[in-house]
Design brief:
CATH superfamily: NAD(P)-binding Rossmann-like Domain
CATH architecture: 3-Layer(aba) Sandwich
Helix content: 40-55%
Radius of gyration: 20 Å
Number of strands: 9
Strand order of the largest sheet: 3-2-1-4-5-7-8
Largest sheet: 7 strands, parallel
Number of helices: 13
CATH topology: Rossmann fold
Shape: globular
Number of domains: 1
């Protein structure tokens, strides 16, 4: 089986290409930017380029996208061209080529405004049953692309799995208050409680989705680290997150204190990966318990793959106010 990996110069695309090359499995990487992991350079919105690239392909991993950090630097039309039109072009080519599976990388950002409850309400328990309420062009176009996935799964009888991934980028947070108050490693360690996933686990979820796609038909899954919380924790998480974490992980305070780290005072949402673990037999390895174990051992809590890929950034320029501007 030969797979096509779009966005092969990006974080996840490169990670998938590395995995396929390491395993000696055939994979073709495409991206608008050249890289050691990109075999063909071109746009997914270019029909001729896509038709040429998909020839001889059995399955598609579609990771290419304009991301949230591009909202302030790119026009709405750019998001439509890449995230919607590009996905449509790929699906039309995939249906014509009769590929066996299409794995689409979406985002938990598609949930949008549904992620933050009103003041005084418990933290949100985010499962696949929560209805998305996109709040920017990024979320709008990713959710629209998900709907294209469902349409082609139904009309073309094409096995399609949508993976809504939480944060796995290593770059600094787009929120200046988070950047000012927390070291990057501190903030990202905190996020493993409720809204982060290691790229190694993201790759394993994609490979399992490919393996099981034909038996699944069409599915959407949340791909995030396994949270230690339960629904009964949600009211207190919104008021005093540290009290909940202290109860579950009594050793966290000493480990954090040694580094001068601190928890987020409040947690407003919790991503729940139960469905992916059950239906994909996905077993993510990197969670908050792993983070604490790594801190105790004095090792990096990131996977070797995350360290190997490193930070890529999202723009070709450096901005005065942070890693990228916020719209």
């Amino acid at each position: 089986m030969t797979v096509l990996i779009t966005g092969s110069s990006g974080h996840l695309g490169e990670a998938l290409m590395r995995r396929f090359r390491r395993d000696g499995r055939p994979a073709r990487g495409i991206d608008i930017k050249p890289s050691p992991f990109t075999d063909r350079v071109g746009s997914i919105a270019d029909r001729d380029f896509v038709l040429q690239s998909i020839a001889g392909i059995d399955a598609v991993f579609h990771t290419a996208t304009l991301h949230k950090p591009h909202v302030a630097t790119h026009a709405n039309q750019d998001f439509i061209d890449t995230n919607i039109t590009g996905t449509l072009v790929l699906f039309e080519a995939a249906a014509a080529a009769r590929i066996t599976a299409f794995i689409y990388t979406s985002t938990t950002s598609a949930f949008g405004a549904a992620l933050v409850p009103p003041p005084g309400e418990p933290a949100a328990w985010i499962t696949e049953d929560v209805a998305p309420v996109p709040k920017n062009i990024y979320g709008v176009t990713k959710f629209a692309a998900e709907n294209l996935c469902e349409l082609f799964a139904r009309q073309a009888q094409l096995p399609v799995v949508v993976l809504r991934t939480s944060r796995f980028f290593p770059e600094a947070d787009d929120n200046p208050q988070i950047r000012d108050r927390y070291a990057i490693e501190n903030a990202q360690a905190n996020e493993f409680l409720h809204r982060r996933v290691d790229i190694e686990d993201v790759v394993s979820a994609h490979l399992l989705a490919l393996e099981k796609a034909q038996g699944l038909g069409f599915r959407r899954y949340i791909i995030s680290a396994t949270t230690p919380f339960t629904p009964s924790d949600l009211p207190e998480l919104r008021r005093d997150a540290s009290a909940v974490v202290r109860r579950i992980f009594p050793d966290y305070e000493a480990l954090f204190h040694k580094l001068g780290w601190k928890l987020f005072p409040h947690i407003d949402r919790v991503y729940v990966n139960n469905l992916a673990r059950r239906e994909l037999s996905w077993a993510p390895r990197y969670d908050f318990r792993h983070v604490l174990d790594a801190l105790r051992a004095g090792t990096d809590f990131r996977s070797p793959l995350a360290v190997e890929i490193g930070r890529k950034g999202y723009h070709d320029r450096v901005f005065a106010d942070g890693p990228y501007p916020v719209a």
